[in-house]
Amino acid sequence: MLRSKDILGIRDLSSEEIIHILETAKDMKERIENKKIREKSLKNFSVVTLFYENSTRTKMSFALAGEYLGADVSDLGVATSSVNKGESLVDTGITLDQMGIDIMVIRHSMSGAANVLARNVKASVINAGDGVNEHPTQALLDLYTMYEKKKSFKDLKVAIIGDIIHSRVARSNVFGLTKLGANVVVGGPSTLISKNMECLGAKVTTDIKEALKDADIVMGLRIQLERQKGGLFPDLREYRDLFGIDEEMLKYAKPDALLMHPGPVNRGIELSTEIIDGPQSVINEQVKNGVAVRMALLHLLAEGRKNNEDIDSEWTYTRPYIQNRWNQRCIG
Amino acid sequence: MKILIQNGRILDPISKTDGIKDVLVENGVITAIEEKITASADQIIDAKGCWVTPGLIDVHVHLREPGYEYKETIKTGSRAAAKGGFTTICCMPNTNPVIDNEILVEYIKMKAEREAIVNVLPIGSITKGQKGEELSNIGKMAQAGICAISEDGKSVMNAGLLKKAMKYANMFNLPVLSHCEDNTLVGGGVMNAGEMAERVGMKGIGADSEEVIVARDIILARNTGARLHICHISTSGSVQLVREAKLRGENVSAEVCPHHFSLTDEAVEGYDANTKMNPPLRSAKDVESLKEGLKDNTIEIIATDHAPHHIDEKNCEYDRAAFGIVGLETALPLGITHLVEDNILTPMELIEKMSTNPAKLLGIDKGSIQVGKIADITIIDPNEEYEIDVNTFASKSKNSPFHGHRVKGKVKYTIVNGKIVLNDGELI
Ligand SMILES: [Zn+2]
Ligand SMILES: [Zn+2]
């Protein structure tokens, strides 16, 4: 059981909840692989995806997860809807709520956007990435991939390399991994990494070799060219030479280390093609696990909603904003 | 109209009076302050257990008129001020249009005369349209009655232009109220840079963006002889810069806002945009320094930076939300709760920073409760405890992070020019 009606970030989940989600995902993965056991546990549930920032991959993953469970999944084409005409996030949410949507999946360029939506609607909200804050479903699929291969997180060394400061994936992984007992080292150029990351429990270094040394998991992150234009590093050639990972660099990690990347990869920049397609890479596996994890989340949220349907329980969050809003309207 | 205030604790920072006395107000002027006054009066106020203080003065308020009347107007802002115990407020020029010429100053004064229930003093912008390119009509605005100049909302980034403005303003004896923020260092930040920003995944505003300009403006003021006042000081480093300037004997003053000494950036955790302000809520260490600065008088003024915003500008994504919170109605209780109750300031020092020192900065004959003075008086019950409820605010906007906070200290009466505008906690 999940404590909240929403999945807003790994920061809010307990380690028990995370493990429960991963165990549920294991069952879901079997359902993906074997059509005969697909169970329509989300029949009559409506899911809508609201992507204020494009990501075909994540959106597709959610849509398939919903469909495999029998839910009705629709997409609010943000680019073509009233949102584009300036409707606020809160108004969009309230409108969808009135239409009886059970679960809203939101991707947004601003941190905390999912939180704002969640406290203004009755529906369950899943954060599919908000600003530089969190990307909990990506982190959960990463965690699932590690869990499947390594069986336990205890004393696992995870090295995350690249543009840490702008990476919600890195942040969600740090929250999750440290909760589960793993050691996380984040590495990258000093302008793409923050010392404050240490307060989240990760070790911070600009020395990539040190980060990779004896790692059980090596995770590369995507570099965005606009960061270079923003003056955060000189150019891609220098980045590749100093911070890119190739076969030589990967040797610093344990021989059985897993190579991961949230995708899409810039081949030859953050990771060399040889290792992307090499035996240690589980990058393709991550994609499949993504659907399984999202099925697990939809399943667990729906279960919670069924259980809480008629009871005015704690679980259905109080919504201070809505109350405020009405109060304020009344006194004019 | 005769008002007799009985048995209150008089707090007058100028004459250092602190004792139980009666006060008589006749035709807008204080005519007697004595142990026992037996004169008849139109209204007798029993101030037993209360402080009777010079009317509070806020040098930093945003009234939003003209241009943003849906957030606040001169009328509603003045009512909020009266509820908060303020008898004089200075309004910042970042309206639409910007207050950059005498016609707009006249407009504010005329509106205030008609609709405001407290004294309203306009502040003129430093540059035309606050664009940072050409000087505003500072001289003409001075003639029309501005009390200071400020580019509040941003810094004049061109140091050469600011230096000219300082020299020019000197001719008219106008203080320069400086909003210290280097926009090349802010980089799209929305909250204090530090551990909490890391935790919630938001872009931080470092202390350096404030301190660089504090240092620059102190240097420019030294060279021009300008009367520099640093607005809403928020970092440990800024406090130190002002402290050092004062030790060198420079003509610099600083204000702190109640939210900056009452809250830390921990408050941002739930992404409630009512915690979004500029400068942002800082770390516990900064708050400690601000309190030290208040204690050793490095910071001699408490100002609210009352910044009303509509609910739609706050109930949204944090990045998108407007900066600023309302402050007029919470300033005094926050001061009592976090400064007096915690023994940072005595009641007299608190009143000095909320009335006497602001009057000195503005060069106006207020901030003192003495015979012969205009009767701007605030009566405060320092012991009343309650929960702040934004729904009771007189301000048009309710954007406060203090909703539900327990505080001590309530304004009971506000008297402006001898007229009661807040009567036993109720606006008239
Ligand atoms: Zn300001
Ligand atoms: Zn301001």
UniProtKB/TrEMBL annotation, chain A:
Pathway: Pyrimidine metabolism; UMP biosynthesis via de novo pathway; (S)-dihydroorotate from bicarbonate: step 2/3. InterPro entries: Asp/Orn_carbamoyltranf_P-bd, Asp/Orn_carbamoylTrfase, Asp/Orn_carbamoylTrfase_sf, Asp_carbamoyltransf, Asp_carbamoyltransf_Asp/Orn-bd. Its EC number is 2.1.3.2. Gene3D superfamilies: Aspartate/ornithine carbamoyltransferase (3.40.50.1370). SUPFAM superfamilies: Aspartate/ornithine carbamoyltransferase (SSF53671). Residues 5-148 form the Aspartate/ornithine carbamoyltransferase carbamoyl-P binding domain. Carbamoyl phosphate binds at residues 57-58, 107, 135, 138, 263-264. L-aspartate binds at residues 85, 168, 222. One of its GO terms (molecular function) is aspartate carbamoyltransferase activity. Keywords: Pyrimidine biosynthesis, Transferase. It catalyses: carbamoyl phosphate + L-aspartate = N-carbamoyl-L-aspartate + phosphate + H(+). It is an enzyme of class 2 (transferase). NCBIfam families: asp_carb_tr, PRK00856.1. Belongs to the aspartate/ornithine carbamoyltransferase superfamily. ATCase family. HAMAP family: Asp_carb_tr. Heterododecamer (2C3:3R2) of six catalytic PyrB chains organized as two trimers (C3), and six regulatory PyrI chains organized as three dimers (R2). Catalyzes the condensation of carbamoyl phosphate and aspartate to form carbamoyl aspartate and inorganic phosphate, the committed step in the de novo pyrimidine nucleotide biosynthesis pathway. This is Aspartate carbamoyltransferase. It comes from Defluviitalea saccharophila. The gene is pyrB.
Automatic annotation (TrEMBL), chain B:
One of its GO terms (molecular function) is dihydroorotase activity. Pfam families: Amidohydro_3, DHOase. Zn(2+) 2 binds at residues 152, 179, 232. Zn(2+) 1 binds at residues 60, 62, 152, 305. Substrate binds at residues 62-64, 94, 278, 309, 323-324. Residues 344-421 form the Amidohydrolase domain. Its EC number is 3.5.2.3. Gene3D superfamilies: Metal-dependent hydrolases, Urease, subunit C, domain 1. PROSITE patterns: DIHYDROOROTASE_1 (PS00482), DIHYDROOROTASE_2 (PS00483). The active site is at 305. Its cofactor is Zn(2+). It catalyses: (S)-dihydroorotate + H2O = N-carbamoyl-L-aspartate + H(+). Binds 2 Zn(2+) ions per subunit. InterPro entries: Amidohydro_3, DHOase, DHOase/Allantoinase_Hydrolase, DHOase_cat, Dihydroorotase_CS, Metal-dep_hydrolase_composite, Metal_Hydrolase. Pathway: Pyrimidine metabolism; UMP biosynthesis via de novo pathway; (S)-dihydroorotate from bicarbonate: step 3/3. Keywords: Hydrolase, Metal-binding, Pyrimidine biosynthesis, Zinc. Residues 52-236 form the Dihydroorotase catalytic domain. Catalyzes the reversible cyclization of carbamoyl aspartate to dihydroorotate. Belongs to the metallo-dependent hydrolases superfamily. DHOase family. Class I DHOase subfamily. This is Dihydroorotase. It comes from Defluviitalea saccharophila. The lineage of its organism: Bacteria, Bacillati, Bacillota, Clostridia, Lachnospirales.
